[in-house]
Design brief:
Blueprint: E1 4-10, H1 15-42, H2 45-64, E2 68-75, E3 78-85, E4 89-97, E5 101-106, E6 120-122, E7 132-138, E8 142-148, H3 152-161, H4 164-167
Parallel strand pairs: 6-8
Antiparallel strand pairs: 1-2, 2-3, 3-4, 5-7, 7-8
């Protein structure tokens, strides 16, 4: 029998994210005003309007990149993690076999200091009390680390496929 479980986790925006988005839109309004005034004073209003619309479209697309969600998918012992931007574009971040998991424990942000930053994927809010650190070995890439926040259903699916000596203490 095939098993398939999925969960979507939305990443909360913090003050820095809001500041960047306000900066993008503020800069767009400022530059659009300058282009609009210069375009009309130089006698090319059509080009100025086209540039203004282009600037607003670019700001819309750029600010959409700050709407991030992660999707965890467990299918027959394989776990996939996808990054979803603005609910429209999806990119596969990780794929690994759950049988290769060598570590699964409650996440503590201090643990990131001991890990190589290129190998760590943070697919949840770091301050989430339900976050876990998972380490798995993959061919060619070595050990990868995933920080994620699975719900109860997904935890049950993961425990079925990870090695028994890890499953006994997982999610405690």
């Amino acid at each position: 029998m095939d098993t398939f479980f999925e969960q979507i986790v939305a990443i909360r925006k913090n003050g820095k994210t809001f500041a960047v988005m306000i900066g993008i839109w503020g800069l767009t309004v400022l530059l659009s005003g300058i282009v609009f005034l210069l375009g009309f004073s130089l006698g090319v209003p059509a080009i100025a309007l086209l540039l203004v619309f282009g600037a607003f479209y670019g700001a819309y697309k750029l600010s959409g990149r700050f709407h991030v969600e992660y999707e965890y998918i467990v299918t027959n012992g394989t776990m996939d993690v996808d990054k979803i931007l603005n609910k429209s574009s999806r990119k596969r971040v990780l794929t690994f076999e759950l049988s290769t998991v060598s570590r699964l424990e409650k996440f503590n942000p201090a643990q990131l200091n001991n890990l190589n930053g290129k190998e760590v994927t943070i697919a949840c809010n770091q301050d989430d009390p339900g976050a876990y650190l998972l380490a798995a070995t993959t061919e060619g890439k070595g050990t990868l680390y995933l920080v994620f926040a699975p719900d109860e259903r997904l935890r049950g699916a993961i425990v079925k496929f990870i090695p028994k000596f890890i499953a006994n203490s997982a999610f405690k």
